[in-house]
Amino acid sequence: LAGEEKEGYRLLGILDVQKTPCAREAVLHGAGASLAAGLLHFLATSRVKRSFDVGAGGFLLATLASWCYCRASNARQRAQQRMIQHGMKNKIIYQGTPADPARSGQNSQATSGSS
C-alpha cells in the first residue's frame, strides 16, 4: 500500500489529467464553454443537431485556447524563476568581492559625494 502509486484519471484513455500541467483547467473551461455555446445556440435557433455541433466546437476551441494560454503563462513564470535564481546565485558568489555590482555602486557614490 505504501509503495503503491495512485493511478490518475485518464481522459479518453490517453491524457492523464492529474499529471499533465494545465489539462484539468483546460478541460473544465472547455466543458463550460461547450455548455454555454450549445445552450445559447439552441435558445437562439431551436436546432438540436447544429447546437450540439456548436457546443462540440466550443469545447475544442475553449480547451485548446485555455491550454495554450496556461502553458505560455507557465513558461513565462519558469523563465522568470530561472532569471531570479541566476541573479541570486551571482549575488552569493560575488558578495563582498571587488566584482560585486552593489559594492561598485557604493564606491562610485562615495567618491562623487566626497568632492
UniProtKB/TrEMBL annotation:
Name assigned to this protein: Cytochrome c oxidase assembly protein COX20, mitochondrial
Example GO biological process: mitochondrial respiratory chain complex IV assembly
Q: Which GO terms describe its cellular component?
A: mitochondrial inner membrane
Feature: compositional bias, Polar residues: 104-115
Q: Does the keyword Membrane apply?
A: yes
What protein family does this chain belong to?
Belongs to the COX20 family.
Keywords carried by this UniProt record: Membrane, Mitochondrion, Mitochondrion inner membrane, Transmembrane, Transmembrane helix
Which stretches of sequence are listed as region Disordered? Answer: 95-115
Subcellular localization is given as: Mitochondrion inner membrane
Q: What is its main location?
A: mitochondrion
User: In terms of domain of life, where is this protein from?
Assistant: Eukaryota
